[in-house]
Design a protein that fits this description.
The protein has one domain. Helix content is 19%, strand content 49%. It contains one helix and three strands; from the N terminus they run βαββ. The protein has one helix at 18-29; strands at residues 2-11, 34-44, 49-58. Strands 1-3-2 form a three-stranded antiparallel beta sheet, with helices on one face. The longest helix is centred in the middle third of the chain and has 12 residues, at 18-29.
Length: 63
């Protein structure tokens, strides 16, 4: 297993509840690996964007 730092932005304009945000973050992180932790580190109210930083694990690549 290897760990990776991931940063991404999600659009908040159509997310209305805390559960909506959690589902969107989980959906966006899934292709990147298994999340160990994630946090919302910045919110741009004007652009309705949240910056997410996460640490994920992936299987070790052969070689």
């Amino acid at each position: 297993m290897t760990t990776h730092f991931i940063a991404l932005e999600i659009d908040l304009s159509e997310l209305y509840t805390q559960n909506d945000v959690i589902a969107k973050v989980t959906e966006q992180l899934h292709p990147c690996g298994q999340p160990l932790r994630w946090a919302i580190t910045r919110v741009d109210r004007d652009r309705q964007l949240a910056t997410i930083e996460a640490v994920v694990t992936r299987p070790a690549e052969p070689g």
